[in-house]
């Protein structure tokens, strides 16, 4: 069963095939209307459940549109409206959904929910973000980097800010795609040591640098994300902002990276907090390409999951 649960648990050859297939599918429909069907209709006859236990704009719309382009049907489900949110076990929900749909995409809180869903479902399960990781986002980001600058292998990626779920999937990708990764942020918000260890064990150069200006030297790509994620307590907001302010990505910080460095943010962004508008809207920013590429990358992920 081809579940897409995380980047580090997916075979590197499969990851490469997904990126290449996404690029090819994107090229094949260049210039077409968003709602135009793909010629081959690989998901014809397939029904996909899209479960959201947290808010979403990009994940929700890109999966829905991508599946429809491929000829499949979608069912958007809010976790709180399902029995899942009212005491039915994850295992039973997985068994039931497997009788109705051909694939389950879930955005949830604790990653144990995703893993239990995958264990008990008879159909592929895709991770649409958990408190711990966001693999679909980083597949879109690798596609975006390579579209603009060629192979990401051997490049230097710098993450500035909170060592959160998106950062974790970047670290997983560093190991699988072979790029160097520097984290710059306050020690309290470092990525988990286990993640860093895993990437280093895979031969990847991972550095922790507290000074953001030092960190960005030689960077090919600078990335950041919100200072307060959906799973973080709102009461910690002020404390987090105070800790993270020195790690804002602004023009001065970008000037320290390579002149052709790109800027990425998974969005939604909080302008003038983790990133300034000058950078978001500047020539180095590819944030809206990333958003578009969620669509193409996920279409390729779904095809890999379903073997179509
Ligand atoms: N980047 C991303 O996953 O956005 P949404 O929360 O809008 O889905
Ligand atoms: N780190 C953010 C990503 C949102 C797409 C969050 O989990 O809220």
Automatic annotation (TrEMBL):
Enzyme class, first EC level, given as a word: transferase
Keywords: Cytoplasm, Transferase
Entry binding sites for carbamoyl phosphate: 56-59, 83, 107, 134-137, 266-267, 294
Chemical reaction(s) catalysed: carbamoyl phosphate + L-ornithine = L-citrulline + phosphate + H(+)
Gene Ontology cellular-component terms listed: cytoplasm
UniProt record, GO biological process: citrulline biosynthetic process; L-arginine biosynthetic process via ornithine
A GO molecular function held by the record: ornithine carbamoyltransferase activity
Pathway participation: Amino-acid biosynthesis; L-arginine biosynthesis; L-arginine from L-ornithine and carbamoyl phosphate: step 1/3
Locations listed in the record: Cytoplasm
Keyword Cytoplasm among record annotations: yes
Signal sequence bounds: none
Residues of the Aspartate/ornithine carbamoyltransferase carbamoyl-P binding domain: 3-147
Binding site for L-ornithine: 165, 225, 229-230
Family: Belongs to the aspartate/ornithine carbamoyltransferase superfamily. OTCase family.
NCBIfam families in the cross-refs: orni_carb_tr, PRK00779.1
Protein function: Reversibly catalyzes the transfer of the carbamoyl group from carbamoyl phosphate (CP) to the N(epsilon) atom of ornithine (ORN) to produce L-citrulline.
Name used for this protein in its record: Ornithine carbamoyltransferase
High-level lineage: Bacteria, Pseudomonadati, Pseudomonadota, Alphaproteobacteria, Rhodobacterales
């Amino acid at each position: 069963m081809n579940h897409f649960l995380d980047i580090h648990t997916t075979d590197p050859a499969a990851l490469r095939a997904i990126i290449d297939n996404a690029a090819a599918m994107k090229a094949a429909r260049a210039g077409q209307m968003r709602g135009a069907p793909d010629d081959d209709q690989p998901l014809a006859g397939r029904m996909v459940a899209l479960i959201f236990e947290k808010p979403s704009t990009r994940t929700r719309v890109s999966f829905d549109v991508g599946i429809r382009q491929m000829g499949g049907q979608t069912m958007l489900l809010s976790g709180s409206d399902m029995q899942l949110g009212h005491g039915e076990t994850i295992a039973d929900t997985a068994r039931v959904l497997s009788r109705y749909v051909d694939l389950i995409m879930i955005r949830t809180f604790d990653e144990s929910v995703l893993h239990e869903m995958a264990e008990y479902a008879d159909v592929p399960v895709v991770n649409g973000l958990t408190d711990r990781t966001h693999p679909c986002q980083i597949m879109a980001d690798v596609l975006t980097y390579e579209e603009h600058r060629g192979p990401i292998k051997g490049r230097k990626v710098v993450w500035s800010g909170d060592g959160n779920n998106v950062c974790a999937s970047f670290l997983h990708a560093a190991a699988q795609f072979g790029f160097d990764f520097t984290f710059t942020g306050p020690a309290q918000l470092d990525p988990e040591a286990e993640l860093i260890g895993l990437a280093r064990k895979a031969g990847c150069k991972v550095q922790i640098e507290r000074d953001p200006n030092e960190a960005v030297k030689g960077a090919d790509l600078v990335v950041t994300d919100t200072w307060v994620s959906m799973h973080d307590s709102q009461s910690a907001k002020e404390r987090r902002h105070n800790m993270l302010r020195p790690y804002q990505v602004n023009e001065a910080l970008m000037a320290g990276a390579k002149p052709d460095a790109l800027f990425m943010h998974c969005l939604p962004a909080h302008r003038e907090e983790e990133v300034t508008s000058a950078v978001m809207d500047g020539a180095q920013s590819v944030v809206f390409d990333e958003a578009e590429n969620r669509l193409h990358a996920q279409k390729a992920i779904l095809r890999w999951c379903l073997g179509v």
